[in-house]
Amino acid sequence: MAKSNIGVSPHARLVLKAINNPKYKARTVNGIAKELQLSADVVVKVISGDLRDQVISVPGVRKNNEPLYVTIDRYKKRTPLAVRILNKRGQGLT
Fold first, then answer.
1. Which of 35, 41, 68, 70 makes the best surface tag, with the fewest CB within 10 Å?
2. Which bin fits 86, alpha (ψ -120 to 50), beta or left (φ > 0)?
3. φ and ψ at 71, to 5 degrees?
4. At what angle do helices 40-48 and 10-19 cross, to 10 degrees?
5. Per CATH, is 10-87 categorized as 1.10.600.10?
């Protein structure tokens, strides 16, 4: 079940929507920033702030040496349990 977005900033709602864009499996900070016309710093602050309990960087996966971000719900749905167990880094992703 997805966490409630009540009380999060307007930027957080936009960033979450961009991360969940069905065109992408996962998103880079720069890709989100470009899509939303925000600075990368704003996107990083939102991911590490308002969305810290909803969004993770995909363990061991990078694009152009940048971490890829996905919602925890999407990660759980798309990643086999065995892979999640192997990738688990104390984030409660299983």
1. 41
2. alpha
3. -75, 150
4. 90
5. no
Domain boundaries in the chain?
10-87
Q: In sequence order, what E strands does 1-94 have?
A: 55-63, 66-71
CB atoms closer than 10 angstroms to residue 27: 26
For residue 70, count other CB atoms closer than 10 A to its CB. Answer: 22
Q: Residue 27 gets which letter from DSSP?
A: B
Q: How many CB atoms lie within 10 A of CB 60?
A: 11
pTM for this predicted structure:
0.74
- Please give the DSSP secondary-structure letter assigned to residue 2: P
